[in-house]
Amino acid sequence: MKHVTRQLFSIVFLFILLTLSTNVLAQSLKLPAIISDHMLLQRNFPCPIWGIASPNQQVTATIAGQTHTTKANSEGQWRINLNPITDKGPFKLTIKTGDKSITINDVITGENWLASGQSNMEWSVKRSNNAEQELKNAQYPDIRIFTVTKQIRHNKTFDFKGQWHSVTPDSIPNFSAVAYFFGRKLHKDLNTPVGLIHASWGGTPAQAWISYHAMKKNPRLNKFIKNYPTESKKWADVVATYEANKPQYDIINARVKNQENTEGVTKGYHKPDFDDSDWKTTRLPVKFSQLHENPDINGILWLRTTIKIPTNFRNKKIKLRLGIIDDYDMAYANGKLIGQSGTETIGVSRKRRVYMIPASINNKPNLTIAVRVLDNQRTGGFISKSNDINIQYADTKIDIAKRPWKYKFGHTFTKEIYGRFPRFLRNSTSGAYNGMIDPISPYAIKGALWYQGESNSGDAKYYQALLTSLITSWREKWDQPQNAKNFPFLIVQLTNFRSPSDKYQKHSWCELREAQRLTSLAVPNTNLAVIIDIGNAKDIHPHNKQDVGLRLAYLALADTYNKPITPAGPLFTHQTINRNNSITLHFKYADTIKPLSGDKLSGFFISSDGKKFVSANATINPDNTVTVSHPNVKKPRVVAYGYASNPQKINLTNDTNIPASPFLSSN
Q1: pLDDT tens digits for 503-562?
Q2: What is the value of pTM for the model shown?
Q3: Contact call for residues 633 and 640 (beta carbons, < 8 A)
Q4: How many Å apart are CA 619 and CA 621, to the nearest integer?
Q5: Do the Cβ atoms of 314 and 365 come closer than 8 Å?
Q6: Helices assigned H by DSSP within 361-507
Q7: DSSP for residue 434
Q8: Which of 135, 292, 368, 616 is most buried as measured by Cβ atoms within 10 A of its Cβ?
Q9: Strand, coil or helix: 396
Q10: How many CB atoms lie within 10 A of CB 500?
């Protein structure tokens, strides 16, 4: 009997063990997020498919009448290269092991482009010009979009998040506007599906997007990697700690948003009849650190005051001026929300809050104003002077800063608790590359778009080396067949920004633009989208992303897809110094060179020493070169064109009417 019992136990134990083993194996087949439903494969191209299985397990992939089999290596990694597919589809891709099968539905083929960079590439469609109409018209089932979720890594990683979508009004609002407008133009002109893979992160420098090993090859980049072996281990630990605490951070983040259904609103903090007798009293302006015993406090602060309204103000539409508030706010008058400034507000940290109180709300002898202030880093609160805080009707203002304001903290936390991803980590060398580029690098693409540079303007002298390293290392990493190894790499040059100038400036933005131009000329199959005319002097994030996308598309259509168009404005290549104290300038795309306005060129400067520049005379020659001179400059050596942070009076163009790139000729 004991023998039977023991035997029965052994059978049950073996059954459980086999069940557990099968479950482990069933979970062993894993695909990266980019190989998923609605994906777009690069047409006419051997497309890699890869993933994880049990070590030495056989893996089979089937699609469009072709079947491939391989074996996972000792670490469970496997890769299959699909044969080129010429038909559009849709197809089903099935991947099998001995115990599991995954089917990827609605797979089509077309042209895949990767879009990367910092905030101007990340800038969404919903925040761009004409957003309402753009979203309404976004119905393109054959444009497929994929956003790589932001993550920093300093070790080899397989996992990343993202999901393919067709373009619809629901899927496109938060997608990269530049990438979308680029892809839409290609889709229409080529009459083919287009895939757009978006991997960017606001504020990141170029070195965050380059592998450590690539930078190690260039001694000029040593400053970015000299401490990498030690620092990368520390960075990896910080990432692990952050992600371990992320559920707690997410709870906090969910509370600290501008949203109408808040705890304070539920309790009636914004209503005129709310009893605030137990609240403390202060006056404006005031910061969180002045009201709380912990000077590093962040969170939500409610303030309210009630004003007796003069007769001449009553039943009138009046302005509520609150000055600049750090970081975000929601303002109420007599219990009604009249305005707010949150993450969606451009330049919110510099914006003076001016909200209109309708006459229909301002119809009582007293006016109760309540403000919910949200601060999520450093010290928040009202930071303008008291004379910026008032109510106004016509030319009459009533000071409301010096009167008593009742206040109460609705929610508080310290910077140690709040889960803002550390800036130093976001900017860390190779972090974005390891987390967002390396994991997708086998995926077949046609080319790449790059809109970045603002965060490197302080180190512009290194930028050509950085960008060259980035381009060459990405191409090597993708390891595409030799005939496509140098995939097109299209660079968006920095736009015009800051104070306008019609003079020569030695400015970091000019130096970085020049590094971008020089890279585009030196690295094969690389080109430059010039946007020096469509920026915003007061906003580093200009909203006209449509033209940025179009100018990138013109480059691709001409150079990659061989369409008979001029892809860009004139691009300076080299100069000839003449004996008659003049310099002749040579350009790409110069067949139809002309002034954009007027009959004379302007914006050129000339120098004999590369330091002191004077405004120059510029003449277009019959061979489409430009000769530059000045009667007082003998033995000239250098020409500058549009060399200012926000250059004025530059008018060199061609039949595209796209401006020529600013430049500084060699000296």
Answers
A1: 999 999 999 999 999 999 999 999 999 999 999 998 899 999 999 999 999 999 999 999
A2: 0.84
A3: no
A4: 6
A5: yes
A6: 423-426, 431-432, 463-478
A7: I
A8: 616
A9: strand
A10: 12
